[in-house]
Amino acid sequence: MRPITKNTRLCMSLSARPGNFGTRFQNHLYQAMELDFIYKAFTTNNLAASIAGIRALDIRGCAISMPFKEACIPMLDDLDPSAAAIGSVNTIVNNNGSLRGFNTDYIAINRLIERHALSPNSSILMRGSGGMGKAVASAFRDQGFVNGAIVARNEKTGRALAESCGWQWQADSDGLEAKLLINVTPIGMMDGIGAGDLAFPQAVLRSAETVFDVVAVPVETPLIQAARQLGLSVITGDAVLVLQGVEQFVLYTGHRPTERQLQAAAEVALRQEL
After folding, report:
1. What is the rounded end-to-end Cα distance, in angstroms, of the chain?
2. Same domain flag for 137 and 154
3. Binning pLDDT at 50, 70 and 90, where does residue 85 land?
4. Which residues pair with 93 in a beta bridge?
């Protein structure tokens, strides 16, 4: 490992429930590429003070997770189009005291749509309307998916997100069908509320061809397991973690890893408990 000195740049994350993926992923790449950076995960009960600390301590960058993706926006100086268009930030970059918000989740989802050759003709049913939901829905909208519905208990945010995509809003998924099901809620997340629950009922699952769950801890959520048992195609949350994480790395360091370096970092981060 490179020694930590006064010149070492600090990057960090802020989340209600910090995990280890980003720490392992980013630090592995810093070491592999011999970059004088270090990365540490944090939580906070004072978001404003934490954002001010990024500026005051010249912290180079910060990953932002639930529930701070929207709340942090008034505390920033500028938004990249990837964040401004959807009103959600998952990455802050500090340039000489000026904090700019980005959304690399949006970039990652676009790449997954292309990687899995998902057809814009497919109908979509997405559960959730928070910050991650905005990134996911906006990416599918911008890729030409016009037949969609948002399922969200919060009618205000659910309707607003659905309308921004030209989709429909529903309070629940009972009786609905779609070829592509997407979960952007914490349902199924390890140790969380609803950890053992399905984000969609079995009847809705049976109508689908592909299931996409952004929850990455665990990778095999109850929803993904149920989809596999039905023989459906699946997209798991670890893919989002890796793709958005490498874009954050590039924003922080100005360097893009090779495919071999990226795969090695992903393996290190994913083979251990997230």
Report:
1. 22
2. yes
3. confident
4. 61, 100
- Helix (H) or strand (E) holding 242, with range, is helix 237-253
* E-only strand ranges, 25-164: 37-42, 61-64, 78-79, 91-95, 98-102, 124-127, 148-151
- Domain extent, residue 141, equals 107-235
Is residue 67 reached through a cis peptide bond, with omega within 30 degrees of 0 on the bond before it?
Answer: yes
Query: How much is the pLDDT for 120?
Result: 97
Q: HSE of 263 in the Cβ direction (CA atoms, 13 Å)? A: 3
Whether residue 40 lies in the annotated active site: no
Proportion of the chain in helix, strand, coil states, percent, rounded to 5: 40, 20, 45
Which residues touch 115 (CB under 8 Å, ≥6 apart)? none
**pTM higher than 0.90, yes or no?**
no
Query: Tell me, what's the pLDDT at 43?
Result: 97
What span, in angstroms and rounded, lies between the C-alpha atoms of 5 and 240? 32
Cβ within 8 Å of residue 141, ≥6 positions away: 148, 164, 165, 166, 167
Q: What single letter denotes the amino acid at residue 71?
A: A
Which CATH number covers residue 156? 3.40.50.720
- Rounded alpha-carbon distances, angstroms, from residue 238 to 25, 140, 165, 220, 233: 12, 19, 25, 10, 15
Q: How far apart are CA 241 and CA 22, in angstroms?
A: 8
Q: Which residues contact 250 (CB under 8 A, 6 or more apart)?
A: 256
167-178 per-position pLDDT tens digit = 999 999 988 999
**Of the residues 6, 40, 69, 179, which is catalytic?**
69
